[in-house]
Amino acid sequence: MTKAPSRRSFVLAASAGVAALPLLGACGSGPASARENFPVSKTEAQWRKQLTKSEYAVLREAATERPYTSPLNEEKRKGTFVCAGCGNALYSSAHKYDSGTGWPSFWKAIDKGAVGTSTDYKIGYPRTEVHCADCGGHLGHIFGDGPPPTGKRHCINGVALDFRPA
């Protein structure tokens, strides 16, 4: 007869799992610029001088802005969304839609070379991080719950973008 696990053994096992989360969260959670070389490369001091505090936090430290705080979430004019760090064209207004999440959302990038992706374990499970292909700046994440034709939702921090009207 097998004895059922005690409450104590369950609590110990759960505690060990929770203790491991910061280690899992650290995997792949560094700035995108540390992963590879990008055409636009600057020192930390140069980025800090060029970017606002919130832009630096998102683009260079992979922070996330609070939902519904970016005016770009409501931007409906025709134009192009570019990287706030380097000006690289990232998303077309033709591919923007209201996902109801509080962040600007797009169903695809402006072209195949505009963004890059990597796996992010920052919150303990894998997500697809999206970054600027030119400077490596963190933009947000890509999820599989978007509209046709791609079924993808590029959930992008508005502070990582600048808008250029057509």
What does this structure look like?
About 16% of the residues have low confidence. Helix content is 22%, strand content 24%. The chain is built from 3 helices and 9 strands; from the N terminus they run αααβββββββββ. The protein has a 6-stranded antiparallel sheet with strand order 3-4-8-7-6-5. It has a 3-stranded antiparallel sheet with strand order 2-1-9, with no helix packed on it. The radius of gyration is 19 Å and the shape is globular. The N and C termini lie far apart (74 Å). It has 166 residues and is an alpha+beta fold.
Average pLDDT confidence is 85
What is the topology, as strand order, of the major beta sheet?
3-4-8-7-6-5
Number of helices: 3
Cα shape: globular
What's the total count of β strands?
9
Summarize the structure.
With 166 residues, the protein is an alpha+beta fold. The protein contains 3 helices and 9 strands. A hairpin with a 5-residue loop joins strand 6 (127-132) and strand 7 (138-143).
